[in-house]
Write a structure and sequence with these properties.
ATP_synth_B-like_membr_sf, mainly alpha, ATP synthesis
Length: about 160
């Protein structure tokens, strides 16, 4: 065997194999590698967009929470103001009711005093008539002397 011929045949086979590989095998491999590179780049870009969206969402959430906190504090303040108004109104109503009760009690007391005075006047008139009977030793007719008794009641 001739070393040069073998070497030349190996060169020819090598170049045929290299040409076949470059023509039929290499393009699909490069296409698969390019697609894989593109998928990785798209995935990284999507991850970056996701991080940016997450950061933006967190900012929106923080803003919403701050707004909700402020609104809650505002509502608490309004509720406290309303509670104070209700308390003041209840105090006013209670004082008005107390004043009305005091006025009614005074009116009742005055009425009872007037009734007691009338009762005392009647008793004094009766006692006066009985005393006069005792003094005069005879019976005094109350119907006949009604004017006199009424005058006596008004003087007492």
């Amino acid at each position: 065997m001739n070393l040069n011929a073998t070497l030349f045949a190996q060169f020819v086979v090598f170049f045929i194999l290299a040409g076949f590989t470059m023509k039929f095998v290499w393009p699909p491999l490069m296409k698969a590698l390019d697609e894989r590179t593109k998928k990785i780049a798209d995935g990284l870009a999507a991850a970056d967009r996701g991080k940016a969206d997450l950061a933006a969402s967190e900012k929106r959430v923080q803003a919403e929470l701050a707004t909700a906190r402020d609104e809650g504090q505002k509502r608490i303040g309004e509720a406290e103001k309303r509670a104070q108004l209700i308390i003041e109104e209840a105090k006013k109503t209670a004082s008005e009711e107390a004043a009305r009760i005091v006025i009614n009690a005074k009116a009742d007391a005055d009425q009872q005093v007037t009734k007691a005075r009338e009762g005392l006047r009647n008793e004094v008139a009766t006692l006066a008539v009985k005393g006069a009977e005792q003094i005069l030793k005879r019976e005094v007719n109350a119907a006949a002397h009604a004017d006199l008794l009424n005058q006596l009641k008004t003087e007492l």
